[in-house]
Amino acid sequence: MNLTPEQQELGRRNFLRVLSGTPALAALGVAAAVKGPVRGGPVRLGFIGLGGQGRVLLEQTDPRYAEVVALCDINPLQLQKADASLVKASRQAVKHYADWKEMIEKERLEGVVIASPLFTHTDVAVGCMEAGLHVLCEKMMGIDDASCRRMADAARRTGRVLEIGHQRYYNPIYQASYEGIVKAGLLGEVYHARLVWHRNGNWRRKAELPSADYDAARWGYPSFDHLINWRLYKQYSRGHMAELASHMVAITDWFFGAAATAAVGCGGVFRFKDGREVPDHSYVTLEYPGGRNALFTSIESNAFDNYYEAYYGTNGTLILRGEVEAYLFEEGAALGAAKPTGVAVAPRNGPAGSASESRSADAAGAGKGVGAASGGGDRLAAYRLEVSGFCAAIRTGAALKCGPERALASARACIAGFDAIETKTRVEIKA
Amino acid sequence: MDLILNRSQQTALVVLRTLIGWHFLYEGFAKILWPAWSRDGSPLARFSSASYLRASSGPFADLFRGLADLSFLPWLDQLMAWSLLLVGLGLMLGLFTQLACAAAVALLALFYLSWLPTRGVYEPGAEGNYLLVNKNLIEAAAVGVVFFFRTGRIAGLDLLRGRERARPMRPVAEATR
């Protein structure tokens, strides 16, 4: 085809005239795709595991963000309590399941919140992701290194959202501490952190049998005691390291900007010799690059210290206590000369005064009260923000605060810590 | 007699039409999209004109407030959203331009009458102080300009339709050649 330059110019001009508005439409369409809203209502969620922690997450699910579609637990009494939680929040009771596979097959779900025992996390989370569901899984990620890696691999392979429930990442006090103090370098060089979770009580729980003919063996437990007290047995649990330390180690990784490289530990069952297998006293030092370390201790014989994380820097000390209080002390200043943080001291009988299995009972029972009384944070807000953040990540692709990589690093450190206590050796955490 | 405009004047009219078109298109698009999520992760509830209608002001306020309680209001909302979207598309692409302009004026007249600014002071929901003339009225006037200058003849998909192509609007240079 031979066109004169004039013809070409005329043809080009005609083309552009006909397409008037279309380039603008395309440009603005791109703007809308980047900045405009993303289609979709509340995320349709199913809950797997409705023990204390699962119910806290259920109660803190904001209906603007998520619609609770179904609940699943092998213990019918937990489901009844969950229903009561929904009714209390003026929400409708939803369908119950005992088998999570049946639930995800029969219900039209987009995501699940998993708060089942630690040893089940991997199978349930991977199964759900492979079924196309997004997963918010309670901490710790998995019971061992291979399980955690399986979960991370499944998230990568399926492209599903996998968030691990380290709520401190969503706690405004921790965020403010990181942004305003740690990241700003106010602490100077931090070589040592103290992670303390001390309680005075028996971790063993007593629970009512759901019915006279309830058979725990159906779910793989040799007895109902094992089902209720799974945290005390090694085949299901990693004890303090999984249930308590993992939260604190995750935050320490964040504040240090690094993952632990080795663990040294000691501990054992010293007070409650009732057949449990996990230590009731745990002492673990985690080594970080650059000569830094974090010392975690958890005892079940004295609650004076309650629970806190302390970061000791060359210029200052940051203490985060009970998830609702923060203190900053200038190094070298007169004793007690704390820089104001806007967060006051909570009552002595703080949330960790009792020996709950983790923080669920603390959060549900005392969180808001303590926060309100001290003028400090609302611990439950972190749970609320976590579930909402998970839903936002599903809908808009918003970044996760504790995705697989972060969770994997802290889980590996805690698993190494548990192994260090068990083997009484220094356990290296290989990359 | 065809109106003779220079290229800048023609371009200005098409730009005006495109901007008004985008305003309509996005208003409709967003309403159809809801319930949705903003990019920062906040949920947006399903669109409903009920609160807008209940807050109507001016001499026709009672009429519009009555619409807020109609059982088929959700259908009206959808109709409104799709109307906005189609009018916007028409104006942006220059397709059925005259019809799109007429519909745009009708919609803007509805919006103007439902919130007719007769008080001359700031009212909740408004972003400024208006007396009789507000942005809806000005936009309607702008659409009127686009309508009467028959901008579908200058640029747009209407040029592919026989009727508009039969009466092309020439630029000044060509017309006086």
Your description of this structure?
The complex is a heterodimer of chains A (431) and B (177). With 431 residues, chain A is an alpha/beta fold. Chain A contains 13 helices and 16 strands. In chain A, the strands form two sheets. Chain A has a nine-stranded mixed sheet with strand order 15-14-13-12-8-11-10-9-16. A six-stranded parallel sheet of chain A has the order 4-3-2-5-6-7, sandwiched between helices. In chain A, helix 6 runs parallel beside helix 7, helix 7 runs antiparallel to helix 13 and helix 10 crosses helix 13. The longest helix of chain A is centred in the C-terminal third of the chain and has 20 residues. Chain A is globular and about 95 Å long. Chain A starts with a helix and ends with a strand. With 177 residues, chain B is mainly α. Chain B has eight helices and two strands. Chain B has a two-stranded antiparallel sheet with strand order 1-2. Chain B is globular and about 50 Å long. Chains A and B meet through helix 1, helix 2, strand 1 and helix 12 of A and helix 1, strand 1, strand 2 and helix 4 of B. Strand 1 of chain A pairs antiparallel with strand 1 of chain B, so a sheet runs across the interface.
Structure in a nutshell:
The complex is a heterodimer of chains A (431) and B (177). Chain A has 431 residues and is an alpha/beta fold.
